[in-house]
Amino acid sequence: MNSAPTGRSERMAATAARVTTVARRLTAERGLTGFTVEEVCERAGISRRTFFNYFATKDDAVLGRSAHRDDEDLVAAFLDGTAPLLDDLARLTAQRWARADMTVENCREVQAAVEREPRLLAKFLEQLLRDEQSDVELVERREGLPRGDVRAATAVQVVGALAGAAVREFVSEGSTTPFADLLTRRLDAARTLLSPDPERTS
Questions:
Q1: Which of 53, 137, 153, 169 has its CA 20 to 30 A from that of 8?
Q2: What is the number of structural domains in the chain?
């Protein structure tokens, strides 16, 4: 399935990615206080106004937290999905990953920036928790579950845990398997392990 943005959204995604790459590299080299927004703008070839149209702070730029989310079409497809819930959740996760252009190099740039600025880790974890809650609410809407139903949270947390493991393998030395395939492999393994049919685990 093609999950790449097109037209204007494609240009916006490219601009956000360029700014994020510059911000991450400068953070890894100097720390967050070692450069200015103006320097990011100069290197990325944008104006200060454009920067703040995309990112509220330097922290957000480093974390890739753009104000212009471009996954509305992916969310709509998830809400209308007819495949098993966990499969559609994994697909949504993989599509978001692809759209964010999370290459091995990009992942390592994030790691280098966080190592230089450990306080970014707390912001990153806060962001993950907000995203998790947002996805829980999506599952509740799709499945018609009451707010706070533990099944919605469990579905999101299961796929999130599998995605985290897939990320670790994706960035490991010598790994060449796409993230989506790594995630699917883990989901299939989890389904087999949790199957009530003993022959499927033999």
A1: 137
A2: 2
Is pLDDT of 2 > 80?
Answer: no
Residues present in the chain in total:
202
Q: Is residue 125 part of a domain?
A: yes
pLDDT value at residue 199: 57
62: CATH: 1.10.10.60
Q: CA angle, corner 128, sides to 7 and 132, nearest 5?
A: 90
One domain for residues 47 and 115: no
Q: Which residues contact 65 (CB under 8 A, 6 or more apart)?
A: 55, 59, 127
* Tokens representing residue 40 in the block: 């990011």
Q: Which of 192, 164, 194, 191 is nearest to 179 (CA)?
A: 164
Distances (CA, A) of 36 to 31, 45, 65, 66, 153: 11, 14, 18, 18, 39
- Domain extent, residue 44, equals 6-69
pTM of the model: 0.81
